[in-house]
Amino acid sequence: MNILEASWIPVHDARGRAVTIAPHEIVKPALDAGAIAWPRVDLQCATLEFLVGVFQTTCAPVSADEWARWYLTPPTSADLSARLAPFASAFELLGDGPRFLQDRDIPRDDVVSVTSLLIDSPGENTLKKNADLFVKRTSDAALSEAAAAISLFALQAYAPAGGAGNRTGMRGGGPLTTLLVAPRQGTHGLWRTIWLNVLPANVLHCAPPSRPTPDVFPWMGETCTSETHDGEARTVRPNERNALQAFWGMPRRIWLHAEPGERRCFVTGERVSTSVTGFSSRPFGASYAGWSHPLTPYRTDAKKDTRLPLHPSGSIDYRDWLGYVHAREQRNGQIEPAAVVQQLDAGGSTPSRRAVVQSPNGMSATMLAFGYDMDNMKARRFVRSVIPDLKLYTSEFIEADVARLVEAADFAASMLRTTLRDALFGRNAKGDASWIDEELTSRTESSFRQAVEALQHIHSRFDEKFGEDVAKTLSAFGEALRAKALAIFSDHVDLDSAESMDMERVIRAQTILRSSLRGEKFAKRLGLNQPPAEGVAS
Q1: Could you tell me how many helices (H) and strands (E) the chain has, helices first?
Q2: Which of 14-18, 325-329, 473-477, 500-504 shows the lowest per-residue confidence on average (mean pLDDT)?
Q3: What pLDDT, on the 0 to 100 scale, is given for residue 499?
Q4: For 40-73, how does the pLDDT look when each residue is reduced to its tens digit (9 = 90+)?
Q5: Per-residue pLDDT averaged across 401-416, rounded?
């Protein structure tokens, strides 16, 4: 199967039917970003990222104006097919020649189950403990060629630590990806979503290739390995390769094994005549250092002289959104939005990316943020979040006020986490308490969205009641945080049946929580001169 030419990407068409399309068919008018129809959300997201990589590599516009022309008037399927054709040889999944994201130089022995292509598959220790709850072991597992192709891409792009010599992805294990998603009104939604995330060639400071070359597609040449020599492992740095290799990194050395004969794909459930049943692998694939991926936010720390890609930890919630859109200073460094988000203000085009994102006629663009929450080699879960109305978060006028909402939510979550853990287990208790943050943000997300929408309206009219109305909006959100935090505390600490608890400890913790969310520190984070007035929170 050639994954540039074959119809293999599952989508739901305009009638809701499941069909497959080739990459050049994403310009079909009825398709939008939500049309990708893999039964696994991680593969849906990986497919969007794969398509961005394909069209960034093969069709990068030379200028912002050229980008705008293809956004306003999408190319035809034939146009795209012609652009992709010269690169087809780099996208063969099987066969004796170069294979997509595979190392043809490794021995073909020691075949492992194809289930191990999936990042959340059980590791060796998990199997020994009989703890494989989500992706079950099976001796006869098979993947369709299509499912194997996107699973392989996801593994190479998001590869976690995998033991001695098994390298992580270019952005470390389980990186965060942020994608702009086109407004859903109108047509060509899938194409416009992909094209929103494709940058002019000069932004990436690289020459677009005219054919497959090893400096973009590493499997087209001699395998770059990272064995240690003289005490140091060899690393691949961006000045040694085309910047487009950011989309096509190959940290894992893999060779897929396919067999004829009808089998059922354990991801899609479909019966296929040829399937991938296992793969061979070797350690010491490419080790990347110093790269910048256009779809990932980074955290910079001037004091430590570091710049590291963000990774999901626990959930992705509204407290994270602002940092994905605006550079934001935090205690452990400054968040730098992904390069594609930074290009929202690129001039010279009509419409500009910002004009698209801030569409005045109804629905605006959204942002999709996703990635694996990893615990070293273990995938805890795949997390996904949608910033619902991106124009509200890209407005420079309300950025400071939205930051105050986030800072207040951070403070409330911290105090709830500290006091609830103290009440339940004592001050010295350890363990993962991220569920407390998640419960608070889940219960207050609607209040946050209402506050942001209210701030947008207040800033748009900027009348004599501006300051008063902003303060009321901030205060109302503060009261919502306070009410929900106290409610969560009460839900988990039942004072009426707490015979086994240290009541003095419980009451002390509850008192600290109440006073902290009525104190000056909380008010300061909201930008208020005094704490929020007590009332009924929405």
Answers
A1: 15, 15
A2: 500-504
A3: 59
A4: 999 999 999 999 999 999 999 988 888 989 998 9
A5: 95
Rounded-to-integer distance, Cα 142 and Cα 458, Å: 57
Please report the pLDDT score of residue 501 as a whole number. Answer: 66
Task: Give residue 425's pLDDT.
Answer: 83
Rounded CA separation 412/487 (Å): 13
Alpha carbons 279 and 108: distance in angstroms, whole number: 8
* Distance from C-alpha of 33 to C-alpha of 44, rounded to nearest angstrom: 9
Q: What's the confidence (pLDDT) of residue 314?
A: 82
- Residue 147 contacts residue 121 (beta carbons within 8 Å): no
Q: Which residues lie across from 282 on neighbouring strands? A: 253
Question: Amino acid letter at 46?
Answer: A
In whole angstroms, give the CA distance from residue 253 to residue 216: 17
| CB neighbours of residue 449 within 10 Å | 14
Quick check: 331 and 301 in contact, CB under 8 A?
no
> How far apart are the C-alpha atoms of 305 and 439, rounded to whole Å?
35
Q: Packing angle between helix 434-461 and helix 466-492, nearest 10 degrees? A: 160
E-assigned strand segments in 73-169 = 112-113, 143-144
Q: How far is CA 128 from CA 275, 280, 522, in A?
A: 27, 21, 49
DSSP string for residues in 390-431: HHHHH-TTTHHHHHHHHHHHHHHHHHHHHHHHHHHH-TT--S
CA-nearest of 260, 341, 328, 321 to 300 is: 328
Task: Tell me the per-residue pLDDT of 269-323, one tens digit each, with 9 for 90 and over.
Answer: 999 999 999 999 999 999 999 999 999 999 988 777 889 999 998 889 999 998 8
Label each residue of 360-401 as H, E or C: CCCCCCEEEEEEEEEECCEEEEEEEEEECCHHHHHCCCCHHH
How far apart are the C-alpha atoms of 134 and 219, rounded to whole Å? Answer: 32
Q: Are 322 and 399 in contact (CB under 8 A)?
A: yes
DSSP letter at 244 equals: G
pTM of the model as a whole: 0.91
Handedness of CA 474, 476, 480, 483 (dihedral sign): positive
Q: What pLDDT score was predicted for residue 227? A: 86
For residue 242, is pLDDT > 60? yes
- Count of beta carbons in the 10 Å neighbourhood of residue 62: 11
The span from the CA of 430 to the CA of 432, in Å, is 7
